[in-house]
Amino acid sequence: MSEAVTTNGSKAARSQKPSKVAGVADWADSRLGLAGAMKKNIRKVFPDHWSFMLGEIALWSFVVLLLTGVFLTLWFKPSMGETTYSGSYEPLNGIEVSEAYASSLHISFDVRAGLLMRQMHHWAAMLFIAAMLVHMMRVYFTGAFRKPRELNWVIGVLLLVLGTLEGFTGYSLPDDLLSGTGIRAANGFVAAIPVVGTYVNFFLFGGEFPGDSIIPRLYTIHVLLIPGLLLALIAAHMLLLVYHKHTQWPGPGRTNDNVVGFPMLPVYAAKAGGFFFIVFGVTALMGAFLSINPIWRYGPYNPAEVTAGSQPDWYMGWPDGALRIMPGWESHFWGVTLSWNVFIPIILLPTLAIGILMALPFVESWITGDKRDHHLLQRPRDAPTRTGVMVALMTFYGLFWIAGGNDIIAITFGLSINAITHFLRVAVFVGPVIAFIITKRWCISLQRQDNEKLLHGYETGIIMRDASGGYSERHQPLPVDEAYAISARERDQIFQIESSTDENGVEAPGSRAEKVRARLSQAWYGTNVQKPTAAELEEAHHHAEEHDHESDSELAGIASERHEVDPPVRKELPPSD
Amino acid sequence: MTDLENRPDSGVVRHEPEEPIADPGLPPHELRPTDVDEKAERRAERQVAGMFLLSAVFTVLFCVSYFVFAIGDDPTMVLGLGASNVALGFCLGMALLLIGVGAIQWARKLMGDEEIVEMRHPARSSDEDREEAVASLTEGVEQSGIGRRPLIRNTLLLSTGLLGVPAIIALRDLGPLPGDKLYHTVWRKWMRVVQDVTGTPIKPEDLQVGQLVNAQPDVFYRPFNPKDSDGDDLTAAQAEARGEEPLEVPEGVELQQEKAKAATIVVRMEPSDITPSKGREDWGIDGILAYSKICTHVGCPISLWEQQTHHLLCPCHQSTFDLADNGKVIFGPANRALPQLPLMVDPDGYLVAQSDYTEPVGPSFWERG
């Protein structure tokens, strides 16, 4: 193939005379000494896969949040001081509202591009959290959290938690009827914290609810405290990503010891940089066409009013759902009140969920005893128990999320809200277990199917009739690249204790924990299907060959569809157009 | 694999049976049409440049729309949507999207697409580095003498540890102490129950059976004058003699705080349907009862009234209260019944409170008992 026509960067750049760029580079490097770090990173390799883009959506929507957020701060007044609204939104003219609400209306109606920026900010926030959630599931399902990346997983969970809090503090700021109802409920949540709840509330709100302090305080948290933490953690997340190098899918030439892909400059600079503009652009289109949080319709906050169907933003939906289906338990003892009905679903459950998420990598590596570095991703089917655990957690989340909309569901489908609630009270416990079992079995049968394909090839859909009248389907071996990608996974090693007692029958220290570990490891891996060995593969191919010759002698007529039985070879594919 | 030696503590015994399929290695690089066909290359170049150019056009259109479309009192409307928002958002979105799509098209079609391979290195430092690091650390700690001088170590721990206390104490003025604020509302004996928003007092005969009225204490609309035992206004001198002062109309924050506790609902039901618990027989007037509007779960104002069943449903978390049965919880996550406001009629025939609520309203809290 002649490279005559291509101008695509195949020629080495050679400078004829000191260019301006070189001058700037020299100036900078003489002071910062960056060349050492840059020579490694400018052409840093990133592997390509669509699922690696999910985290990028989160990153870029965070940038959109910073940009649109700064715009909003130029007009927003974080004050609960009373003012009489006089602006372009006629229905509220002359009404006593807070400065926060009036300035939010001002941004929406009297600042050009103000409504656009408000809506973009809100949409970007939803995108940010949604992308983080999906990115987290991708990382878990593919085993990308394993050593050496456990700490980055923990940072990721913190980012998700902080992002959620950032969202709550943000949508509480406009002081409209809906967000005020959210703050009212938050006041009730804090009140349910044992011992200190009442005091925390009085300090947080500067006295009794609603007071005049909560919005300025939430504002400081929203524009300074949490964004600062988010920035620092995102920086750490990115640095660790660069340091560890990206994980990759196994495949021809892609091993645990290398990383194969495109260089940072120019390909990823263009792709990732371009993707920033796409995320930003899509957010702008959403801000243009999709109305979100129309605070003028809700009206200003009034502690004596509420709208039917009050719901938080979607990411707060699952703890809100837990709150809705929790039975009304409360204990009264020693002159105090403990509100289990609020404390368990809204304080304990989310804390527990965060703890479980953070612990997942460590629990798995303890059970499996696997302390090796992993840079190759696993397909979800190749880790059936892990996949089952995440699907169970998703089911748990999803059922609570449904509970968070139980009133809407009841009205939409004409169901009894009591029946929905009773059903969900049971389902949140039973559902995840069923989901786990189904997922695990499903993964295992997919593993079987993979082995089937490796050993006997894929089904061609060609039905053969032999001389005795029996029918069979022709199988073709997989292309070698595909076959290798399927087989390039590790065999699971069940943790075994060699002997828990010494020759005198004395139990070794810590052997009880080791026994538990061995049992859990058996449960974790025991039912998995392992990939065939070389001998099994050869045996299967040999068998196929014999079978083929048999039918060949009798069915010479369809020789054109001959079953290939030679060891699989890479097929030359025509260049794609 | 490579790191087995790093895990002497692990009980895993590894046997790697022969791999079924050997790594065929990286597939050969395939040339794209733009690599071999000059026409395709030019076309791709034109596409990318075209998108960048179109993006510039949209940016100009954004600037134009900013000045052309009016907002405010008399906004330009297009299909029922604010033209300014739609045009600005659309132009900005397209300007950004076209840069993004153009850049990616450039990367996919024209930039070099040879995959390159980089080797990984374990995150773990080499043994020598570790030893050196530990040695440096030990030397540093040794030279500080912190291990040999417990007096310095302990006093340092004490002094830095104590710094946490001012950090907490300095937050003390974030808010007042709760005191007994959560136990009282602004309601008191003889205070009229008035309609929310309008402030009109309510006579029993104004209410139909099945009707629900959102109510507030009269003091939110006009000052409350102390009354004598028959409900007549005391003169200033009489009031002073009894140690009672007129209540001013609360304003601003104070009004919001009082409203958040005092909001009340008044309902009229068939007297025969009502089953008052002991001591509450005379808390209603001809089937008219008053309850706190603030949910005992987490404090949402309750609003959804089912006339037929006398049930009141909270829109936030669906706690349901039976107003014919002392506000008891019949469904949902709330635990406590809605507090009831004892009612009577004043000499002018208007509904008034017999007293404040007899228990704290709103969500439970630790000290509530």
* CATH topology (level 3) name of the largest domain in chain B: Rieske Iron-sulfur Protein
**Oligomer category:** heterodimer
Using a beta-carbon cutoff below 8 angstroms, give the protein chain pair with the largest interface and the number of residues from each chain: A-B, 152 and 123 residues
- What is the CA-based Rg of chain A, rounded? 30 Å
Give the N-to-C terminal Cα separation of chain A.
Answer: 16 Å
What proportion of the residues of chain B is helical, as a percent range? 25-40%
Mean pLDDT of chain A: 90
Description:
The complex is a heterodimer of chains A (577) and B (369). Chain A is mostly helical. Chain A has 19 helices and 8 strands. Among the domains of chain A are: 47-318, Up-down Bundle (Cytochrome Bc1 Complex, Chain C); 457-488 and 533-572, no CATH class. In chain A, 58% of the residues lie in helices and 6% in strands. In chain A, the strands form 4 sheets. A two-stranded antiparallel ribbon of chain A has the order 1-4. Mean pLDDT of chain A is 90; it is low at 1-5, 554-567 and 571-577. With 369 residues, chain B is α+β, with helices and mostly antiparallel strands. Chain B folds into 2 domains: 33-109; 184-368, 3-layer Sandwich (Rieske Iron-sulfur Protein). A 5-stranded antiparallel beta sheet of chain B has the order 4-5-6-7-12. In chain B, α2 (38-68) packs antiparallel against α3. Chain B is extended. In chain B, 34% of the residues are buried. The model of chain B is unreliable at 1-15 (pLDDT under 50). The interface between A and B is large, with 152 and 123 residues. Chain A: Its EC number is 7.1.1.8.
